[in-house]
Structures are given as C-alpha cells and as structure tokens.
Amino acid sequence: MNRRVLGLLGLALVPVAAFGVFFVLPVSGMIAVGLFPDGTFDPGGVAEVLARPRTHRVLWFTVWSSALGTALSLLLGLPAAYALHRLRLPARRVLLALLLVPFVLPTVVVGVAFRQLLRGSGALGFLGIDQTAIAVVAGLVFFNVAVVVRTVGVSWESLDPRPAEAAATLGARPWQVLWTVTLPALRPAIVSAASIVFLFCATAFGIVLTLGGVRVATVETEIYLLTTTLYDLQAAAALSILQIVVVVTLLLVGRRVRAVPDPTVSRTTPRLRRPGRRDLPAVALTGLLLVYLAVPIAALVVGSLRVGDGWSLENYRALTTRGQHQALLVPVTEALQVSLQTAVDATWMAVGAGLFIALLVTRRSRTRTERRLRGLLDGLFLLPLGVSAVTLGFGFLITLDQPPLDLRDSRLLVPVAQALVALPLVVRTLVPVLAGIDDRQRQAAASLGAPPWRTLLVVDLPVVWKPLLAAAGFAFAVSLGEFGATSFLARPESPTLPVVIVTLLGRPGDLNYGMALAASVVLAAVVAAVVLLVERLRVRSVGAF
C-alpha cells in the first residue's frame, strides 16, 4: 500500500469514525432489534412481520403512491424544465427560484397547507378528499416536482442542439424530434430524477402524517406508529430493514445511471430562444404548475389571517402564548428560537464535514486503488439518503443511551441528527464544483512552493465559496424543517417549531389550529427567505443530485 493511499486513509479516519458513531451505530442498533430481539439471531421474527396483512397493505400503498407521485412529478416537471431552461421567459430566474421553494419547505408545512385547502371548510373541501390517498399523492407531487425541473432542466440546457436540428432539417416533426432525439438524450437525467423522487416519496413522513391521518399509512409512518404508540420495536425494525434495502438499491441504480457518459451533452450551454407557437403547450403547463404550487401556500396564509368571519392577527399574537387550554409547554416563539439555534449548529456541522469529505473525494487519484477508495468514501456519506429519518432518530435513542455514549441529554443530539440528514445535500453540492477544477492549477501552485493549505485558499476557495454558501443555506433550511428524527429526540421543554406545529394540530380548539397555521406561515417564510437568498448565488444545487 503506497504512501498516498495511507495518507488518504489517515485523513478519512476522523469523518469515517464520526459517521460510524452517529450513523452506522444507530442504524445497526435498529436492525439488531429486528434480527436479535432477545440477544439471539432470529430472522423468523422479521419474516413474521413482513407476512402480516397490514404490512402488505402498508407496503402496497407505499409502492403505488410513490410510483404515482413520481409519474405525476415527471408529467408536470418535464414541460416546466423545458420552458424554464430552454426558453427566454420573463422573470425566468425568479420563476426557477419560486419553483425550488416547495422542495425545501418543511414537510409539515406542506401537509398543513394542503389540509387547510382540502378540509371541509377549505376552498376545495367540496372534493371530499381530505385525509385520503389522493391528498397524500397531491402533497408528494407538490414537494417533489422541483427535483424534476432542476435535475432534467440542467441536463436539457447542456444538450448539443445539432442532432435535433439535423432531424428537423430531414423533415422530422417537432414531436418526432422530441421522441426520437431529445428524450433518449435526456434518459439518464430523467431516470436519475425519477429515482430520487421515488425515494423522497417512499420516505416522506410529515406529509403523510398530516395529510393521511389515521386512514393512510406508509412504511415511514408505520415505523413511527409501531415505535411511539404500539411499542412493537421488532416490527418497526423489520420495516426499517426492508426500507433500507430498497432505498439503498435505488440510490445505487441512480448513481450508476448518472455515471454513464452522454455523448450528446455539449460543452457550451446553448443560448435561450424566444418561445414560439409550438412552445405554447409547455409554457401553459408551466403556468398551471405555478398555480398548483401557489394555491396551497395562499390557502395557508389566508387561513392564518381568518378568525371567525373576519380578518385578524390574533393567531400570530397567540404565538407568544402556550395556546388554548395550555396545549404547549413553551410558546411558539421560543420553539422558533430553538429551531434557529439548532439549525445553526446542524449547518456548521454539515458544512464542515461536507466540505472536508468533498475535498477528500475530489482530489486527483494516481492509482486504481486510490480511485476506488475515493469512490467508496463518496458513496459512504450518501447513505443517509437511504435511511429513514424516523429510523435514524429511534436508532439514536436505543444506542446512544449508555456510557460512554450516553447523549440523550446532550443539546447537540438533535443538531447531529439533522446534520446527518443534510450531509448528502452538502456533499453533492460541492463535489461537482471541486471536481471541475483543473488539477493543473493546484500543481502549478505547489510547484511555486505553496503548501497544501495555501493551495486550498488560492485555487479552491475562489471557486467553491459561492457553492459553499449555497450548501450552507440549504442545510439550514433542511434543518429548520426536519421532523422525522427530531420528533424522537427533541426534549419536551425545548421542542423545535415543526414538533410544536404537529402538537397544535393534535390539540382541540380553534385557536390551537389557527396557531398551527400561523406557525407554519412563519416557518415557511423563514425557509423561503433563506432559499431565495441562496438562489441569488445561481448555484444548481438540486441538479447536483
């Protein structure tokens, strides 16, 4: 083993050890509950859980709702990807930023917005689909369509226009060019987007919990129910094992597809063109998509301002109280402060670790062993995408509860869990940027006598600082809205804002419901402000997946 490989292993030791303690150990602990319920290996218990009729119903609903959510996201997202990444539309960048906001909104906020729209007294209450599978799928599409727009749109921008022009010159109709030239060239991006959307749909928690109620359950919400209400830990662990296997498989498939080189990609981005008559359907569908995304948010804001038959800020003023009938242990304003502090801690953890990992895996490899090791490290730190946040949170509880790792009372426990959720996003934002830097610049700096830290400051930092700020912004937004792991780990006296919102929804009283709406608006406004600020950096963060 040469010196460079040993050096790489030495540098990777600290992040890998931390990852082992705060990710591998909790997940392994959760798996052990299912496979070793009494300290002895018992796979039959997992098989019994998976053979239950209710488990079959939950699995079937998870599969078909995720598949339908993915299909509808593609159906709505592909025309918008074309219109916003190939056409010169008014306020195009603003529209792209607004389309990104739903993706980073807290899932609890999305659920509350749709509940306000679909409940009996809501604008669409006459449809009678509140707390049904239709409502859940609608929420999933709202949350995930931005992934399709960004992932496919970035690839669409980079397509070499000459094959399509040649086909048109030979007499192919526009739909024939799309079907025979454009879509085959976009296949890797479309498959990648579909795999990511399916993953997010299958592991959605807050949306299903708030929109599905007691009628609808996915694997994610079933794990939560089994652990918090029924205390059937072996069943919860069995579902977690199945979910991990399926989702990690999807990640590997998506990663393999993205690794296939596309000969139709141009090195230069084509110029945007003015929309013509044939572009009207895509522009119209993009407009409908914007309306679809705007209506639930508008219903949420309007609902927060309605008290009785009039308009009032009473719901917002009540955020400084503990709610009707003392529904909360602390006011919403205090929970917001906890969320902001937690998000700050989670952000510096995720960004610091993500930057170090990205630098580690993008340095030039001189041997096949070194290249494989860097690829292994890159894939290792993407694993949190394949594990339910609910599984991760419960794993924290059952593994980090004994000396020397008794962290149940640590203030940093929740930030660590949220940082793990945000870490893959940070890594995937920074890796393409750092990998795109010409290594000859680093070699030139080194040949002039610059030490490694100086090379980092002179060569890498000027290129990566904007993506780094973008990664920090998205990590902050993800942390603010994280609910799956936090619902297990947040202490009652210091809950985060998503936890408080769900608590208010579960308490009787019109004021409590109005406070939940107002708190959701506040949380959505903070997240949207962060995302819009990040978007000004013009970083294709979602496309980085």
Automatic annotation (TrEMBL):
The keyword Nucleotide-binding does not apply. Gene3D superfamilies: MetI-like. It holds the Pfam family BPD_transp_1. Keywords: Cell inner membrane, Cell membrane, Membrane, Transmembrane, Transmembrane helix, Transport. It is a multi-pass membrane protein. CDD domains: TM_PBP2. Belongs to the binding-protein-dependent transport system permease family. It is found in: Cell inner membrane; Cell membrane. This is ABC transporter permease. It comes from the Bacteria. The chain crosses the membrane at residues 58-82, 94-114, 134-153, 189-213, 233-253, 280-302, 346-363, 375-400, 412-435, 456-478, 513-534. Residues 59-252, 336-534 form the ABC transmembrane type-1 domain. SUPFAM superfamilies: MetI-like.
